[in-house]
Amino acid sequence: MKDRKHPPDEDLARRLTPEQFNVTQEGGTERPFSGRYHASKTPGEYLCVVCGNELFRSGEKYDSGTGWPSFWEPAVEGAVETRQDLSFGQVREEVHCANCGAHLGHVFPDGPRPTGLRYCINSAALDFRDEGERG
Ligand SMILES: [Zn+2]
What we know:
Blueprint: H1 8-15, H2 18-26, E1 44-48, E2 54-57, E3 61-62, E4 70-71, E5 80-85, E6 92-97, E7 103-108, E8 118-121, E9 126-130
Antiparallel strand pairs: 1-2, 1-9, 3-4, 4-8, 5-6, 6-7, 7-8
Bound molecules: zinc ion.
The site of zinc ion has 8 residues, from loops.
């Protein structure tokens, strides 16, 4: 048996679905319109599927028409971090969870006011907490 560089991955592989694992740990992208949340307007909070960190809220979610959940701002400053992603011959800003480093999606400078940003996030990286049930 060889040493593994990232022992926690084995645990995650059991806890997450293959798609959740691919997106958050391997930087994958789900097919557009395939996820659970791209069209959702239910009031609530979107949490990191890996660590439960609050990432986004329904109040900053909008319909970008891309087939992925889109937000113009994170739930709180510092909830997510970005870094330059040069894969596929493109320059993009990759978005990941500031707490656990899970890959979430990308951010693009073509969003609505007031930020002008579009956080294009995979449903598979998110867990949803419904606020509506308290009445
Ligand atoms: Zn996380």
